[in-house]
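Practice problem 4.
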């Protein structure tokens, strides 16, 4: 996978002011207030059903939150025209939906639509960005492959490529490395780490706490009952807090200048 050809940076902040996220019969996130800055990788951790996907969808404006305000670049979500918002913020859902048949290149070009004016087709510039995004996701040469011929992992990387082609200032990624083999897990995380280092804001949910500790600057812990905790990954990710988060004993292992966590 390639991290080259990062486009010019449009910085943007993402802020929550007293945001509450609910599902029928349950409070998932209560009174979330935080400000996430460009150039950071923020990981969202929690048990299954704790609200990670629901929170990311609320931050993207896909699902409404019960109360509070989400601001992108200090502007409330509801004040953004949808097309303009999509130029600044991209959501990678947890599941890959390919409702229409098409090639890999055609699928990734969907990520260019927010940047294409009315009555205009994709041009050579858009196709170049799409091909570079495919290459970044280790799908170079797959332009003409029909999507239904790709494996599950390849389709996940195709979804990553489409988000890259969107060229947002804020990436919201729901389990971006699911279905990927270890090599592509690491390369995908490196890819978004590189985007953050270039000035983007990356917010992603993960299940691998060791990889979260390795690549994240900050962490948001969701306990599934409304409680949450936000702070620097170096301090928030520890045995005591992770044990409470997951309801099982967690051990921290250190080697050289790195660390990982395993369930005991």
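Answer key:
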């Amino acid at each position: 996978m390639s991290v080259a050809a990062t486009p010019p940076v449009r910085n943007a902040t993402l802020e929550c002011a007293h945001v509450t996220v609910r599902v029928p019969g349950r409070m998932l996130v209560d009174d979330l207030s935080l400000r996430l800055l460009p150039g950071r990788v923020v990981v969202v951790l929690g048990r299954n059903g704790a609200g990670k996907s629901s929170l990311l969808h609320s931050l993207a404006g896909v699902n409404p939150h019960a109360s509070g305000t989400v601001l992108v670049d200090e502007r409330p979500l509801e004040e953004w025209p949808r097309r303009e918002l999509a130029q600044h913020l991209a959501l990678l859902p947890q599941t890959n939906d390919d409702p229409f048949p098409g090639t890999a290149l055609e699928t990734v070009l969907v990520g260019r639509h927010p940047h294409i004016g009315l009555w205009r087709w994709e041009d050579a510039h858009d196709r170049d960005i799409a091909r570079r995004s495919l290459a970044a996701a280790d799908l170079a040469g797959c332009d003409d492959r029909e999507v239904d011929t790709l494996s599950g992992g390849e389709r996940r990387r195709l979804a990553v490529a489409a988000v890259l082609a969107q060229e947002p200032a804020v990436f919201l990624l729901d389990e971006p490395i699911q279905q990927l083999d270890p090599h592509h897990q690491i390369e995908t995380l490196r890819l978004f780490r590189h985007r953050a280092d270039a000035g983007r804001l990356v917010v992603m949910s993960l299940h691998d706490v060791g990889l979260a500790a390795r690549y994240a600057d900050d962490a948001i812990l969701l306990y599934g009952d409304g409680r949450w905790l936000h702070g620097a990954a170096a301090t928030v990710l520890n045995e005591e807090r992770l044990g409470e988060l997951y309801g099982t004993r967690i051990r921290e292992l250190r080697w050289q200048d790195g660390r990982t966590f395993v369930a005991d």
